[in-house]
Amino acid sequence: MRGLAEGPPGLQADDWPPCAQKIVGHIEESLRSTATPQITQALNVLTTTFSHCHDPWTQVLWVQLHPLVAALLQKDPVPAAHSLVDLLLSVARSPGLSSSSCGLWETLAQTLSHLSPTQAGLLALGILKLQDCPQALRAQAFAVLLQPLACVLQATAQGPGPSGLLDSTAADSVTADMLLPSKAACVGLLCQTLVHLELLLPLPQRPCPWPQAPLLGAAVTLLQLCRGSGSPASDAGRQLCALLLGCVRVQRAALDFLGTLSQETGPPELVTQVFAVLLEYLRSPDSSPTVLKKAFQATFRWLLSSPRTPGCSDLDSHTLLFLRELLPVLQKRLCSPCWEVRDSGLEFLTQMTRRWGGQAGFRHALLASEVPRLTEQLLRDPESYVRASAVTAMGQLSSQGLCVPPAGPEHPGSQQKSLLGELLHILSTDSEGFPRRAVMQVFTQWLRDSHADVVGDTEQFVAGVLQVAGQDLDWEVRAQGLELALVFLEQMLGPLRSHCPYAVTPPVAAPAGPLTQALQSLCRVRLFEFAFRALFDCDRPVAQKSCDLLLLLRAKTASSSSLQEPRSSPDVASVEAALQRWRAGDQAQPLGDLEPEVVLAVLRSMDLEGLRGALAESSDHVEKSPQSLLQDMLATVGILGENEADCY
Amino acid sequence: MKLYCLSGHPTLPCNVLKFKSTTIMLDCGLDMTSTLNFLPLPLVQSPRLSNLPGWSLKDGSAFLDKELKECSGHVFVDSVPEFCLPETELIDLSTVDVILISNYHCMMALPYITEHTGFTGTVYATEPTVQIGRLLMEELVNFIERVPKAQSASLWKNKDIQRLLPSPLKDAVEVSTWRRCYTMQEVNSALSKIQLVGYSQKIELFGAVQVTPLSSGYALGSSNWIIQSHYEKVSYVSGSSLLTTHPQPMDQASLKNSDVLILTGLTQIPTANPDGMVGEFCSNLALTVRNGGNVLVPCYPSGVIYDLLECLYQYIDSAGLSNIPFYFISPVANSSLEFSQIFAEWLCHNKQTKVYLPEPPFPHAELIQTNKLKHYPSLHGDFSSDFRQPCVVFTGHPSLRFGDVVHFMELWGKSSLNTVIFTEPDFSYLEALAPYQPLAMKCIYCPIDTRLNFIQVSKLLKEVQPLHVVCPEQYTQPPPAQSHRMDLMIDCQPPAMSYRRAEVLALPFKRRYEKIEIMPELADALVPMEIKPGISLATVSAVLHTKDNKHVLQPPPRPAQPIGGKKRKRASEDIPDCKVLKPLLSGSIPVEQFVQTLEKHGFSDIKVEDTAKGHIVLLQEAETLIQIEEDSTHIICDNDEMLRVRLRDLVLKFLQKF
Known about the structure:
Number of strands of chain A: 0
Number of strands of chain B: 33
Oligomer: heterodimer
Radius of gyration of chain A: 33 Å
Largest sheet of chain B: 7 strands, mixed
Helix content of chain B: 10-25%
């Protein structure tokens, strides 16, 4: 059809070339077929066509095929329902078709009512995502989406009357039959519904008004049913309870959904219920590790959304009360024999501390608990993931001054020092990469935030960290070392990286001292030796990062004329020679103490741009080059004689 | 077949089954929850407990103040603790032929039955059951005997007085039958009546029935029992587990095709998952110890403690608790830990294979070697010099009424740093704690019950498909506190029959067949006649000889015996009457052909009516009626013997004789 683009668009099907007519004929025949695979294939072909081609002729095609597609709905069950949904949505999304003129809305409405709840859910979500769609159809689609949850609410309602999710007439027609026949069907439908609603919530075109309160109620009810803690009055409710009891899939989906619902507020009594059910899940010994993780995430999101007292940034009294109940639970979870649980507990703690670490109520509650001390003990956990999370959590706690219970005046900050020592110990001795990476991130953050421990003797700190990080076998640790070096550079020399031009306030330039002093400081911490070593790192990301850092440094110092250039001094030559050896792979020899002038001279003489270009090449560029092909061929010929026995 | 239900406790059953000519007692559990009504027996004189105020009636009369003491709002009996025995009046227990024991928790009432009821039979149990059961009994006797109490209260048991008492004393059942603990002598005598059996061993009881223990997966040596005759099978399921813990896995396949399945001993905490509870146990333990507190675990000296020690073995290093001492205090601690290592054949496969390596099956051996776990018979002696805090103490009794645990409750109860963790599900922890209130120490309830839950039961029943299920009434409805939990009850078709204490159930099942042997010479003499393809018949004349519940057909004493015989079982050894018997008939009468024959023989005006069971042939002229049914034919005619004989001969033409 594209080939005919020069001529008229061919709005009459009769004008279409014979091969196109033949294809259309075949599709028509397939759509009339009774064999589902054939129908599926035809629908898939049409879906591909409508989603990739928006020419005017597609409208003609749709008008022609539309009755056949609509006829599929008359069959029971509707064949190839999934493909049909895909097709209808792709047609609805196609800008080439004016949806109102070709009966698409009617077909969509009809399809919604004909498909089974599971199949209709996807279509309903697709319809609700459409930009221009009749209000009635949107309402119908939303009702389809809400129906399973309306069933749940209806089955568990204490008294008669509409559940609040669907209006009374719709609710009357709602039966729990579609949920109850089997556990698999019930769980599948509920999980799908929850995921669809979760996807819909953040969209600007989501239905308005959004039934926040009934949805919250439904999520809470589902979670209660899964724990067996709800007390449904009806038989249907009891049956539902038996189906959902202990179902981890529904628990996970409902917790995710509940977390997403935190974007909106709800009536206070429901919010109280939300916190109660979350606490129940966090407390329950039967919550599986994945469910617990989701419960922690949902709790954090709800805590984030909890109302603030006007004019006061601290947590409100309800939240503080909740926090006081939550911390003993967290304490226990940090001692769990299951490492996943300890890990998600620590992540939750880190999130909370990052968010509320500065607020008096939170600080007071946390310091009154055993949580900080337990976290410190988890730095020695046998599981590396837990150690890594503990490092991050301790870094965060320490940044906020929450590491120690209020120390006596005789040992101010004594434990803080030991934390730095402990983290350095982990960095230099831990056998696993994750904790070491976490330490590097904490150190970088500490340097950035001018953490009290670091400020005392920044140079010694940076020197120590770079020395250990430079010898690490994990490239991410080395790369993180470069990040730390960059932060240090910026503190010494002022901002190096270009900042976002749209930033509201221009970044405050660090009070950079005279360049020479700054460079001397960099030399003292052996930053250059670290960076040069990284430049020839066998892992490309490390080398790239180092190259970028050195380029930034060179640009920063280029404008300065305060430094003499001892271009031809023997020092420069020996450093360049050493670097040549490093590049060749022999990194045994250290560079020794460097002078700023020598470093600058070496920097200027190096082809850093060239190196950056080479590093930017993809890792298989050598293999892809013709030269490599030739080498391969030669190598094959060379070894052919030796490998005659090799059958392939 | 009848079932006499002597215990109302679903996990401590005691039932008597009358099956064929045998009387079989299934378990004899001892309900020890009665001890919760008594004051604790402190090992060391406790000023607090000895100075409790006496309790007086509402009208001020204080005649009970020596027997009843008030403690934090509860009233306790100040006396030697007493136990609630199985019902002894419902059936004459001296008629019990055998007692089958399922596991060591279900034999604690054995001395009461074997020593005081005139019981003369045999007790069957596996070796670990007996050995560990002995340890439990020994511990119990020791706990109670080492704190002699002069007083034995009985006034309060008077029915008229009991009515006036506050709950739970008021509601206690059968208090008049409550008994003090047995002595070691009685224990030894009772245990001497036990005969040891192995899994799948077939034991003949008087030739009438065969009993077989099967592995039940709950505890070392724990068993379910099959009680079967040639044509009937009764399964007794008690205390079984499908979880992978230390014992041999449960044998489910052998329970198939039962006529009746008696189901007891399900988990007492159906809502708690043992895995979650073990996690909870470890977390709380670590949390307490890290805060410098001590942990007290009231427990039995065998069973779940092995699994707990194994979990802790894996957990303590990761939780940084390697330096915390674990103490196991029980008069039988040493024997229990040692015994567990020698019953290799009764362990799960994993542990069995360890026996072939140079390592013991349970890792608690390593804990002992490395001095992390220490065990003592009592808190007196070595323990007091080794004692180091913070620590974890495992000790009995879980009721908190006697044993070393009483001392630790008094010692540690005042500090909120310490924690008591309840892992045994047999006692309500709130009731157990009642005499220690007010209590500062933390209390954690982590009941670990590995027995079958309702989901597992429903799967089991689907798989083994018994014709009838019999269970305690508690299992046929959801627990009262969670009446909406329809999943917390047995759901099967036909609905399970339920029983309660002191009830006699007639089991819904009739015996229809009995196996009889034929002597070879008699069998030789039979001349079978094929009456249908594949079915041959022969008449037998013989003497039915019955001895030890075995029935044998022997050739009759007189060789020239006319044909005849009796198929039915008879206990007499008389020579049977030998009158000449009419030939036996077989076959069926095709109505159409029969009518044609009648017509051929001159009968006319024949009418045939179909009935529910066959046909009626009406000879209207002769006013005669021939009823033809599957197993009988009647000729009804009015005083016309000639006609009747004619018709009879016509009928006989269609039948075979032999």
